[in-house]
Amino acid sequence: MEEASREHKAKLASLLGPEKLESLEEYQRSLPARQELDMLARQIEGSDAAPLNEDQRKRLLAALIEERKRIPAPQFPTGTDANADDYAKTFSDWQADYNARVAAQARGILNNEQYTAYDDYVKWQKEMNEQMHIQRVQGSGNGDVMFSVAAPGVMVGETSVVTATTTDVKPGK
Fold it and tell me: Model pTM?
């Protein structure tokens, strides 16, 4: 896999040149922050607050990228006997710290109404993650999948939120 990755990168470098390859890689590294910004913007637009203007979007994106670079999200160590619960705790601690750092920057970018919508979204996201953790720990073991809150599923950085309009969905066997 590593060899295929190196070959792919070499082909891209010959096609794009080193400067454009670096730009592409930088863009790819920023995708989680861009996805997060899109979700935050939709949450703010869905509230009573004014939508983000272009300057706010640029500044908030820069803050999200900066904070992800400064202290990257922990990666689950593959090929080891890593404990999923230990990783979940490590990631949860990182997420709380990341949210606090981003919130500090967002206060200087968003107006009061936008910040309130942002803060509500972060709290909701934390509650959903805690509920998923509790369900994972308690685990029914029967394959049932429980959903709540009618809203579209999204992927924000390393966090996924899946929702449906029904409250009890059993996967097909």
Answer: 0.68
Four-CA torsion 18, 20, 26, 31, nearest 10 degrees: -140
- Euclidean distance between CA atoms 97 and 106, whole angstroms: 14
d(CA 31, CA 65): 9
C-alpha span between 158 and 10 (Å, rounded): 28
Is the pLDDT reported for residue 170 higher than 70? no
Q: What are the counts of helices (DSSP H) followed by strands (DSSP E) for the chain? A: 6, 2
Query: String of b and e for 81-112 (b: at least 16 CB within 10 Å)?
Result: eeeeeeebebbeeebeebbebbeebbeebbee
Which residue do the tokens 């899109």 mark?
38
Burial of 6 (0-12, 13-18, 19+ CB in 10 A): exposed
